[in-house]
Design goal:
The protein has 248 residues and is mainly alpha-helical. It has two domains: 46 residues; 161 residues, Orthogonal Bundle (Lysozyme). The chain is 53% helix and 5% strand. Helix 3 packs across helix 4. About 14% of the residues have low confidence.
Length: 248
Amino acid sequence: MSYVSNITLKVVFMGKVNKYLKKNWLKVAIVLLLVYGATRKNLSLRINMNTPVKSEEKLPVLPAAPIKEGYTDNRNAPIPDNKFSLDPFPSKQSASKLAEKLSQIDDAAKATFVHRFVKVAVNEQHKFGIPASLILANALLMSQAGQSAGAQAANNFFNLQCTSDWQGPTFASGKTCLRNYETAWMSFRDHSYYITTGTFSPLRTKSTTDVKGWVDTLQELGFYPTKADAKAVLLIIEQYELTAWDSR
């Protein structure tokens, strides 16, 4: 092919290209932009992959916060001094009257309450030597099977009151300041401390099967104000067959 012919072909080809570009310039521009973007992304990825990774900065190790635990599962651990204040019979109600109110609560609710706390009571029995039946009876009576304001709002099932050394949250039950517990178990543990320390420390020598002896001694030491109150507690233990848990 001659030189002239080549020139002619090139002119014709360029003419067609120009014509195509004029007609499809928008499509061509979009394609070029896509190719340009893909090229920059690929280049950036290669640069990042070749950049040495900085070593991870080590955070300073902070000292562990001290664990504030007021209870122990060590049966032989020393028991703290008795600084509790407990009024089993709020508003000067006798145990007999509280027992009468308790009898009006649905039996299913009382059974549910016992089922909920029986393991806690047995655990406290093993650690403090308190009959589980007595723990459950006190809880049933003082919290009205968990329906009292202190039990529902403050996890306080034994009317344990605020004292000068109490640093936890509080709950006002009428004119009485009650301890506000994070969990129900903490209330049961404080009850165990209360009736095995201070004035009531002699009870730690009694057998867990001597429930009547526990109740009579608590009455003699002032925990239950009268013999009628002590009798009401024994009737609750008998009525709900709570002694079945004392041998667990």
